[in-house]
Design a protein that fits this description.
11% strand, binds uracil
Length: 244
């Protein structure tokens, strides 16, 4: 049985002992509308209501912790809500937690996160900065790790998007940096890939949005670092122009 699970892609145990899931009360999962074919499917009204009722970040975090509508939660060790300064001028949106983030309960702490921290430091920004002007706030499209780090599905993104959009509204950053395809698509609602979108300023919910390559893409293909550097300089220039 173990060998079969390994063949299926299982790469870690998530509990100390076996769980008889047939013995459990089924959880009511809101129905996802599968007929919607736009890049971002319609949000589930009940989820929009839950997210919009959150008056601050603590309430949003609590609502996510209590939310049972996304099956990813059941395979994750921790909710990965956010890191950094909630008053930061810059908010960064990544895709979803990986193994390291799932264990730590914090976004971008693995290899991609280490590269992200170096990239931010190169333009005078840091998630640990105490002054809002030099700080960033970081979150992901999905707050739970997809199994084996697979790409998020359209249904998962549609289900969780109201929480993401409320998160952005509550932080109200001056600039939103969306990293990679999943974040750009979720925030901008476009099917266009990140290679075309990157470096071109866009807007979502009245906030300036800069699409960039995901740090994981930079780790896979070092040639992309040149464009990422140009985008970081564009971010710095926009912040400097806004501050003067
Ligand atoms: N990749 C992401 O998009 N987010 C994380 O938190 C870690 C890796």
């Amino acid at each position: 049985m173990l060998a079969w699970q390994v063949d299926c892609g299982v790469d870690e145990a998530i509990a100390e002992g076996p769980v008889d899931r047939f013995d459990r009360v089924p959880v009511a999962v809101p129905e996802v509308r599968t007929e919607v074919r736009a890049e971002v499917a319609d949000a589930e009204p009940s989820v929009v209501r839950i997210a919009s009722a959150c008056g601050d970040l603590a309430a949003l975090r609590a609502a996510l912790a209590a939310f049972e509508g996304c099956a990813l939660k059941r395979g994750a060790k921790n909710l990965v809500f956010a890191d950094g300064h909630p008053g930061a001028r810059v908010m960064i949106v990544g895709e979803a937690p990986g193994r390291d983030e799932d264990l730590a309960g914090l976004p971008f702490v693995g290899r991609s996160g280490q590269l992200l921290d170096l990239m931010l430091a190169a333009v005078g920004l840091s998630r640990g900065a105490e002054e809002a002007a030099a700080a960033v706030y970081i979150t992901n499209v999905l707050p739970w790790r997809p199994p084996a780090n697979r790409d998020p599905t359209r249904e998962e993104v549609a289900m969780m998007r109201p929480f993401l959009m409320r998160h952005i509204e509550l932080v109200a950053p001056e600039v939103l940096v969306v990293m990679g395809n999943a974040a750009a698509r979720a925030v901008l609602g476009t099917p266009v890939g990140i290679t075309q979108l990157r470096g071109v300023w866009a807007e979502a919910e009245g906030v300036a949005v800069l699409p960039m390559f995901h740090p994981a893409a930079l780790l896979r293909d070092g040639l992309k670092k040149r464009e990422a550097w140009a985008d970081l300089l564009a971010l710095r220039a926009r912040l400097d122009a806004g501050a003067s």
